């Protein structure tokens, strides 16, 4: 068997553990999920678990990173070549709301993770890993292309600090979407009201940034 086969097999086990943890955390708080539950859900032994993760905290961090990567990737894909910067930004923000509305559990997970991360000691090494991930994402912000395209094509107002604007948009959007994620999925009235509010916010934000 080749080294590539072993690596692929190892990667599949890791992906299966992350998928199982994500599935269980959508059903209950990750504070109530344990290694035994995850191994059973993934069909993987506890011994194999520890070949990939040293602790539950490390696995939960991997889930957080995967959700953020999935969310930002989905939003970036809403922008198409040839779009004006204004259209790119509007399309990406609309896609963001659509993603959140169909993945309320993921958005709530991000909120709970950040609260837990700030309130509890998850270990210095894991904190440094997460901080490096966030730092890299901020420096290579997924909204920068749309903003800079808009500045260059004249559809968005010139901005001396587009990275700071991208951070502001991210924090504002996530705060709004996290509030939406706290509503019960059965509470259709509140969910629909939050969606209307989110779409109105996008319209106001794009209008404010446009020429």
TrEMBL record:
Pfam families given in the database record: TetR_N (PF00440)
Domain HTH tetR-type, residue spans: 11-71
Keyword DNA-binding in record: yes
Keywords: DNA-binding
PROSITE patterns: HTH_TETR_2 (PS50977)
InterPro entries in UniProt: Homeodomain-like_sf, HTH-type_Tx_Regulator, HTH_TetR, Tet_transcr_reg_TetR-rel_C_sf
Record keyword DNA-binding present: yes
DNA-binding region range list: 34-53
Family matches, as Gene3D superfamilies: Tetracycline Repressor, domain 2
Listed transmembrane segments: none
Name recorded for this polypeptide: TetR/AcrR family transcriptional regulator
């Amino acid at each position: 068997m080749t080294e590539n086969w072993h690596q692929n097999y190892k990667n599949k086990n890791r992906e299966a553990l992350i998928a199982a943890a994500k599935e269980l955390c959508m059903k209950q708080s990750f504070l109530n999920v344990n290694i035994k539950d995850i191994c059973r859900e993934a069909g993987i032994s506890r011994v194999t678990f520890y070949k990939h993760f040293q602790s539950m905290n490390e696995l939960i961090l991997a889930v957080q990173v995967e959700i953020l990567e999935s969310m930002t990737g989905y939003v970036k894909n809403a922008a198409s070549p040839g779009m004006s910067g204004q259209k790119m930004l509007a399309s990406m923000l609309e896609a963001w709301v659509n993603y959140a509305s169909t993945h309320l559990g993921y958005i709530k997970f991000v909120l709970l993770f950040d609260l837990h991360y700030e309130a509890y000691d998850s270990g210095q090494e894991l904190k440094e890993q997460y901080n490096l991930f966030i730092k890299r994402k901020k420096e290579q912000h997924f909204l920068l292309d749309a903003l800079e395209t808009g500045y260059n094509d004249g559809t968005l107002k010139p901005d001396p600090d587009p990275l700071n604007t991208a951070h502001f948009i991210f924090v504002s959007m996530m705060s709004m979407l996290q509030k939406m994620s706290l509503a019960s999925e059965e509470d259709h009235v509140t969910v629909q009201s939050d969606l209307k509010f989110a779409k109105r916010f996008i319209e106001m934000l794009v209008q404010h940034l446009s020429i």
